[in-house]
Design a protein that fits this description.
Radius of gyration: 14 Å
Structural class: alpha/beta
CATH topology: Mannitol-specific EII, Chain A
Number of domains: 1
Distance between the termini: 11 Å
CATH architecture: 3-Layer(aba) Sandwich
Order of helices and strands: HEHHEEEEEHHH
CATH superfamily: Mannitol-specific EII, Chain A
Largest sheet: 6 strands, mixed
Number of helices: 6
């Protein structure tokens, strides 16, 4: 499974207004629930926030990948958000986060969950990809950059 298999154009939020981590994570979780008709929406926001309080998912270079395994869902879901202002995620490099990729997967799934996290981390390790995503003017162009980058950098 690849990032481009689960990230869709309508699941990309080009401008996140808030600069508060908890607000942004809650907003993104609620959007994911609404977009995909997920029934246990409250537990998703709660699980993501709990995971984030245990350890920041800010991996550096302005990237955060909040994620969790959730009981009661049957497939992986991902949404992406971009913040021009930046959000304090307590990232490992202490820099503000501008690109957020939120992923949830079924509680009993490990291989696909891990593979997606690995692929996304690899794609985001390239400065040119991050720069292009920050400059993308639409969800279409954002997704196109992800697809081309994944095809180029991930086996």
């Amino acid at each position: 499974m690849r990032v481009q298999d689960i990230l869709q154009k309508n699941s990309i939020l080009i401008e996140l207004a808030s600069t508060d981590k908890q607000e942004v994570l809650t907003q993104m979780a609620r959007y994911m629930v609404s977009l995909h008709g997920i029934s246990n929406g409250d537990s998703i926001a709660q699980k993501i926030l709990e995971r984030e309080s245990d350890m920041s998912t800010g991996i550096g270079y302005g990237i955060a990948i909040p994620h969790g395994r959730i009981s009661g869902i049957d497939k992986l879901y991902m949404i992406a958000g971009r913040s021009d202002k930046g959000i304090d995620f307590n990232a490992i490099d202490e820099e503000p986060v501008h690109l957020i990729f939120m992923m949830i997967s079924p509680a009993n799934t490990s291989t696909d969950h891990t593979n997606i996290l690995s692929s996304l981390s690899r794609i985001m390790s390239y400065e040119d990809v991050r720069t292009k995503l920050l400059a993308a003017d639409s969800a279409d162009s954002f997704l196109d950059i992800i697809i081309k980058s994944e095809n180029k950098y991930v086996d």
